Amino acid sequence: MPSKRFKKLPEKTNLLKPLKINELLPLVKKNCTTKFDESIDLSIAINNKQKKNEINIRTAINLPGGTGKKVKVAVVAEEAKHKDAKDAGADIVGGDDFIEKIKNGDLNFEKLISSTSMMLKLSKLGKILGPKGLMPNPKLGTVTDDISSAVKNAKSGQVELKNDKDGNIGLSFGKKSFSDDKLIKNFDTIIETIDREKSNYTIKGDLIKNIFITSSMGVSYKVKLDKAI
After folding, report:
1. pTM for the structure as a whole
2. Helices (H) and strands (E) in the chain, counts
3. Which CATH number fits domain 11-67+159-222: 3.40.50.10490, 3.30.190.20, 3.40.50.720, 3.30.450.20?
4. Number of neighbouring beta carbons within 10 Å of residue 115
5. pLDDT tens digits, 30-82
């Protein structure tokens, strides 16, 4: 049963005429009627089924305005890199001992960063880390020997862009408390990144089929893009 709060929200907003991001943000924020600072989220559908190749976007973005979220970051690295990881703000740092804990199901973190040399050992835990989306990936900047930068990026507002097998990308790009200008800058950065990804493929038609915006507990609206991507 929908709550009283949800019943007061507009209905069938996803069927309305698409509007530009700057026009939609005030509407989405107006629907943030909970007591907490709701996330502002995007649902992006890309045209990933191509005749010549299937599109798989896997990249990380540093949003200029951050995300407003606190991310618990874990690092697996050789002991010589432990201090750098801790100084950069990593919440959990370890080596072989930590890998053993992960093997036993200890996944008390939201992002995992690995040094290059430790990745061979971590790769054997694919069945544990893969389904949770926690397996480090060089394309996402989470397999690196520059542990300090990777941790700082993860802590300061880095988000992952990756589509599922159906071509859907879901991510948060800020909070209700963010100014519209900050959210628009984050949105533009995401769109520009997807636009750059397009050049890696031979694509028939637009890469982005549609984009919807919503808040954590709100309703969705379709976004109108300024140009075809």
Report:
1. 0.83
2. 8, 9
3. 3.30.190.20
4. 22
5. 988 889 999 999 999 998 877 666 788 889 999 999 999 899 999 999 999 99
